[in-house]
Design goal:
Layout: H1 2-16, H2 33-43, H3 52-62, H4 72-84, H5 89-96, H6 104-113, H7 119-126, H8 134-141, H9 159-168, H10 182-195, H11 198-205, H12 217-234, H13 238-249, H14 253-268, H15 271-288, H16 291-295, H17 304-317, H18 320-329, H19 334-342
Helix pairs in contact: 1-12, 3-5, 4-6, 4-10, 9-18, 10-11, 11-13, 12-14, 12-15, 13-14, 17-18
Length: 344
């Protein structure tokens, strides 16, 4: 998780960067990746789509697209610009090119993520100028790669499916959706910086329950990143604060409670508290291990036969909190699984 912490620090640097003019002078303003980040952060206050191609060229020159996992904010930003400037999209994309073969993926993904009503034809039209990414283009056109808002915070897997996966070792086909990650979090922020739309913020809010996770360092870190960046941005962005307040009224208690903490931190400009709490929770989880292992240690005292029967009962009733220890401790045997399947 050192990588996740590094990404969190990078995002924080972006959020605390001082506002810059929205019209870039490539020779004066865009002298470093940090200066580009400042320009992107200020863009929504005075949109200037005509300056975006120069930003793309500058980022390419700095080597900012070499690591896709570190480029989410740029992809999201370009997607937002293309999607909100539909009549100018063709012209803007043309001015971004040519790009080195290793950087062409950024334009392909930005077009696919843009939500432009004619995004497929845009990809087809520029395929000849993006030859290094022909396979990627073909996969997007065939709907084999997910787009920006094809997102699922958690896979919908039943307890019984989980048991069968553990026993057979075979997983069902995964849905064609984006999975939560620090890169995706950055991408949603980039889209918001370009558009001020609530939709990417809604997706970030859906990651907030993970800030309470007690079993996975990865989930806890990502949820904490979502929580901290929402508060940090909202402390300086009144429109974002309104979005969060509105969202709180429409969310389940679990998310509404975390949103209240985010809003309070933004209103009092006390985001440091959230950061300290997040790092403390992550460190505690690393030190003590997942909660389910701490909470179910007594299962080891039960006989194997009783445990197997308990697992079958748990699978039958769909009670995850019963089924999880069975899966972890290997209580379900192939024979028990066969017995249950014959009763269906």
């Amino acid at each position: 998780m050192n990588r996740a912490n590094a990404i969190l620090i990078a995002v924080v640097m972006l959020l605390v960067a001082a506002p810059a003019s929205a019209t870039p002078n490539p020779l004066v303003d865009l002298v470093s990746t940090e200066s580009v980040m400042r320009w992107i952060n200020a863009y929504r206050t005075k949109p200037d789509p005509a300056g975006v191609p120069a930003v793309v060229k500058t980022l390419s020159r700095f080597g900012s697209f070499k690591d896709p996992e570190q480029s989410g904010v740029f992809v999201g930003f370009l997607a937002g610009v293309i999607g909100t400037n539909q009549e100018k999209a063709d012209q803007l994309i043309g001015k971004m090119l040519p790009l080195p073969p290793g950087d062409q993926w950024v334009v392909v993904r930005a077009i696919a993520y843009s939500g432009h009503p004619d995004w497929r034809n845009l990809l087809r039209r520029y395929a000849g100028r993006l030859p290094a990414r022909k396979v990627m283009i073909d996969k997007y056109l065939a709907d084999q790669l997910p787009r920006l808002f094809q997102y699922a915070p958690e896979p919908n897997v039943s307890t019984w499916d989980t048991v069968k996966i553990k026993v057979t070792g075979k997983e069902p086909p995964k849905p064609n959706v984006l999975e939560p990650s620090p890169e995706l979090l950055d991408t949603y922020w980039g889209h918001y910086f370009a558009t001020s739309h609530a939709r990417p913020i809604t997706r970030i809010i859906e990651m907030l329950p993970w800030s309470l996770d007690v079993d996975s360092v990865e989930k806890l870190t990502l949820g904490s990143m979502a929580k901290y960046t929402l508060a940090s941005n909202a402390s300086r962005d009144p429109e974002l604060l309104i979005i969060l307040r509105d969202a709180r009224e429409q969310r389940p208690k679990e998310i509404a409670k975390v949103l209240t903490q985010v809003i309070d931190a933004a209103e009092t400009v006390d985001t440091a508290k959230l950061r300290k709490e997040a790092f403390a929770a992550i460190e505690e989880l690393r030190r003590k291990g997942p909660a389910y292992r701490r909470n179910v240690s007594w299962w080891g005292q039960i006989g194997q036969g009783a445990l197997a029967l308990g697992c079958i009962a748990a699978a039958a009733t769909g009670q995850v909190y019963l089924g999880l220890p069975c899966v972890i401790t290997g209580g379900v045997t192939s024979a028990a699984l066969s017995t249950w399947e014959k009763q269906q």
